[in-house]
Amino acid sequence: MHTPRVIRSIAVLMLSAWLGGISNAHAAHDIAGYVAVDRPLTDTPAERAGTVEPIAQTNVRASARGSAPGSGGRILFILASSKVHGTSTLPASISFGEVVNAWDTFHAAGYSVDFASPDGGAVPILDRYVSEDMEARLQDDRIMNGLRNTATPAQVDPSRYRAVYYVGGSNAIYGVPEHPVLQNIAMHVYERNGGVISAVCHGTAGIVNLKLANGQNLVAGKRITGFPEEHEEQDAAYFKEFPFLIRKTVESRGGSFHVLAGDQPNTQVDGRVVTGQNYASATQVAEAVVDILRKLAEPGRDAANG
């Protein structure tokens, strides 16, 4: 009388074992397929995502990022983190247009761009430093994500870069010029990579303290420009916070400072050092950097002289 119940139990056990076998077989197939298939990496390039993973931790994904959007190489934008002038409460900012105009030029030439700042993370952007023609670019995530997530100096692997570009703005004179790690990054790019150092407007403040391995000032004997103190509002409160004056400091370091009276572009190229006087010079500076890098890439060119 118990035979049908026993038969049903055996049947259930056999069915369960059969179904379990199918499930396990599919799982094994999925794992094997994942391992066997050469899947493309899905990381978004750094200049599109805006985030810079710890660049010192070189891995397959970091290498993949280095190839986009073109084969030109990588440019490091160095920005200031300070939100105020010195020890005051006066607001300070990067120059958004100096980022955008240079980024567009480098991107069009096939270079990838990363962003770094003394503190890492978001850098300040005040409305007064965003012109009407640049407002729409505040929605450009390729740039904005980068400005919200700049790398710290410790995260930067300088061996990956062909050039550095110091961005101007009212905060550029604070925190960047005296930062030893940022100085080391720039000089690694210049001396060991045979790359280019560039700066625009107040960004020139970032290069005044740079020194070659032999102890000589980078700007010594070179034609340099930037935003000069004679163009500042010298009776304004912000100016009283400046820790040093750009033109005076360049000249005290042995550089030859060249400025124009108006607001027209003025770019000085001396070897592998490129500087621009003002906002209007940002595109010219980037174009000059691209030109130098292309010439350096030509067979037989020696980057040691610069």
TrEMBL record:
Family named by the database record: Belongs to the peptidase C56 family. HSP31-like subfamily.
InterPro entries assigned to the protein according to its UniProt record, in alphabetical order: Class_I_gatase-like, DJ-1/PfpI, Prot/Nucl_acid_deglycase
Transmembrane segments: none
GO molecular function, one term: transferase activity
Organism superkingdom: Bacteria
The name this protein goes by in its record: Type 1 glutamine amidotransferase domain-containing protein
Cleavable signal peptide: 1-27
Limits of the DJ-1/PfpI domain: 98-290
Keyword terms of this UniProt record: Glutamine amidotransferase, Lyase, Signal, Stress response, Transferase
One example of a Gene Ontology biological process annotation: methylglyoxal catabolic process to D-lactate via S-lactoyl-glutathione
Pfam families noted in UniProt: DJ-1_PfpI (PF01965)
GO CC term, one of those recorded: cytoplasm
